[in-house]
Amino acid sequence: GRAKYCPVDFYDIHTDANSSVTVPVKDGWSAFAFPLAGDAIISGTETEEQTASKLDDEGDYITIETKDNN
After folding, report:
1. What is the 3-state secondary structure (H, E, C) of 15-28?
2. If you ran DSSP here, which 8-state letter would residue 56 be given?
3. Which strand (E) or helix (H) includes residue 64?
4. 33 DSSP β-pair partners
5. What pLDDT is stored for residue 22 in this prediction?
6. Could you report the average pLDDT of every consecutive run of 10 residues in the chain (70 residues)?
7. Which residues, other chains included, contact 15 with Cβ-Cβ below 8 Å and sequence gap of 6+?
8. Is the distance from CB of 36 to CB of 67 less than 8 angstroms?
């Protein structure tokens, strides 16, 4: 049979506490985020560290905001 694949853009993003970053998402692509160390607010949703988030495929970017986890 014919193999299917899902092309991926992978970003390893390091941020300071209390900062934000905007990541572009290609039209028709889905976005997936996984904060490794520390909680984050991903496109408006509070996300605990080491918790996966799949975001809707609406829009052309996601925002990642970090908090002061001290």
Report:
1. CCCCCEEEEECCCC
2. P
3. strand 61-66
4. 53
5. 93
6. 74 90 86 88 90 79 81
7. 21, 64, 66
8. no
